[in-house]
Amino acid sequence: MDFRKDFGAGLYDFITRRVVYHSLFWLFALIVLTLIEGFEQGFWFTFSNEIIRVFFYGLIVYFNLYYLIPNYLTRNKFLTYCGLLILSTVIITPLNVIVFFLKFSGHPGAQQMLVENRNFYFLVSFLVAGISTIVKIVSDWSKQLKEKQELETQTMQSELRFLKSQINPHFLFNTLNNLYALTLKKSDQAPEIVLKLSEMMRYMLYECNEKRVPLSKEVNYIQNYLDLERLRHGQKVDIRFEVEGLVGEQKIAPLMFIPFLENSFKHGLNNLITKGFVLIRMQVESNTVYFFIENSKPDVLPPRDLRRSGGIGLVNVHRRLNLLYPENYALDIEDNPNSYVVNLKINLN
Hints:
Number of strands: 7
Strand order of the largest sheet: 2-4-5-7-6
Structural class: alpha+beta
CATH architecture of the largest domain: 2-Layer Sandwich
């Protein structure tokens, strides 16, 4: 019931606005036409004549807009449309001339001028019909273009939400694995990892819903993430994170670097290496961020299905970059004999 009420109210508002806009247009046309000829023939006399002209022009326009175009032109029946448009104009225009002929019944000279200028009336009528068709085509094209852009924007936003949602389960699963490993070892560091996890989850739940977050908060998140990995791996892995340049309130899409970190620890180390390393460098120059990460390869490669799942994460982040920073990023991934290397450049503007 509420839907019908809202739909009816919306339809009423739409029709009302359209009637008002069209009425204002015809009133404006009527005033302009009256002013053009009114100085010579008198304003009231001209005004009464222009009302008749505008009425018949309106018949041509609205018959064209609301019958001929929807039923023939938009259905690609071009020849039929042109034929009916010409026919309707040929029928309506003489009616206009006849009305004027009857109005000037006591003025033979005026009637004679109507007969002599009948071709001019046809010319103007065809011109009005043609202009109305062009305006309708341009208006519909503009409307379709706007709807297409809105649909593309909605699709992109939905895809971005989906791609970003893929990050959260990966992170939570990996961190719970870390916590589980420390619990098995009965480590005193378990409470610390819970606090780190709480801080990171707060960031993800409340701040990562924004389209952009301060780069400083993203760096802090990375630092917390690496602290958790240090607690998990201990001396087994050398983890270094270096930041150069001024990190402040520059805005960046949230969690953009995390898939690379997750990939490094999950597939580059994976408890299959005697002494590993993960080196991360971030360099900030004005509104450009350079992100470098290199990690050692395991002595034994992980199973193919694990490597494939890591590839899915990289495909997702590549898609996010294409959506968020089209033509404003450069990504290079190297598979070297002893390490994996990622170089990412993002223009934050």
